[in-house]
Amino acid sequence: MFNIATILSIWLILSTGILSGQKNIERPQSLKKKTTLVEHKGTEKGKNALEPCKSCEDRLQKEPLEKIREDFIPRQDLSKYYPTSKDPNTICYAGYVFDPSTPPPFEKGLTTRFHKGKNYAVIQFTGPILKEWKNRLKKLNIKFYNYLPHYAFIVKGDESSLSKASEFDFIRAVIPYHPALKLSPTIGKHVIVGADDRPYDGYRLVIELFDDADPRLVRSELKSLVRKIVDSTLVYHKRFIVDVDKGTEKKIAQIEEVKWIEEQGEYILYNYRHRQVTQSGAARDTILYSHGIHGNNQILAIMDSGIRTTHDLFSCPADKIISNQAYG
């Protein structure tokens, strides 16, 4: 079995070394828009952060563009958008801390209510949840999904079952799964440096559906709301990745089968630093490159989890097994 992550990592190290590991790096006329989208030291006050600053221009004379870009990638702490509480009567989720037995402080314009047929809801128990409590609710054909602190679950059941559940003495509150609880509080809070082709005037969102949702119905609804459906996965999780205009996320949250919406993070390669760690384990030391080894015309693979080296695929004289180690 191939260790895909390892193979890709090694391929990237070798291939990027050919291009950006060279000593002579041509100085571009100006930093491209995607070089840095964040304001940094050297950017004049009031000046567009997308424009190159004097500090960047000076550094380009001496340092690879790749290293400069990595230095400007922000390290963000988004935990402040997820407040918590020690009060056991509260639910802490999606940036809200609220008591479900009182009117919740959700954003106006997002509404929901119980209706005939199946409903997604939040049930809060009176304390630490016992298995027998859950079993009694399951007998009412109530299905459990995610746990929410404190002592709550996202569930699904018809209006009658949820009404009966609210009468149990171990149930503290039963409320609809409100669209506001589907929206990550960090949407729009990420600093995007332009590592992919997402729209700068909108968002790229990951939309997760409930596991029993019909993705075909959701897709048809999304088509009328989003700019583009970038990707989808329906195997282990039912998810869509979409590009949207700002504000569209609230309309998507109104789709009943949607469980969670968040902004997709950027996948950023730190190749400049990675090469140093891989080659020597020390900063600013690329010992392989200094010996003229850049990986040109080399194909390298690492295989894991049981390999039969006598297989025909390894019989070619041009192929060479460098090492065959057994661990554990």
Q: Which strand order spans the largest sheet, edge to edge or round the barrel?
A: 4-5-3-6
Query: How large, in whole angstroms, is the Cα Rg?
Result: 26 Å
Strand content: 15-25%
Total discrete domains? 3
Care to count the β-strands? Answer: 10
The structural class is alpha+beta
**Stretches where pLDDT falls below 50 for ≥5 residues?**
12-52
Count every helix, treating DSSP H or I runs of 4 or more residues as helices: 9
Helix content: 10-25%
Largest sheet data: 4 strands, antiparallel
What is the H-and-E element order? Answer: HHHEEEHEEHEEHEEHEHH
How far apart are the first and last residues' alpha carbons, in Å? Answer: 17 Å
Shape: elongated
Topology:
Elements: H1 4-20, H2 54-60, H3 65-71, E1 91-93, E2 96-98, E3 118-125, H4 131-138, E4 143-148, E5 152-158, H5 159-165, E6 171-176, E7 202-209, H6 215-223, E8 228-233, E9 239-245, H7 248-253, E10 258-263, H8 271-279, H9 287-290
Antiparallel strand pairs: 1-2, 3-5, 3-6, 4-5, 7-9, 7-10, 8-9
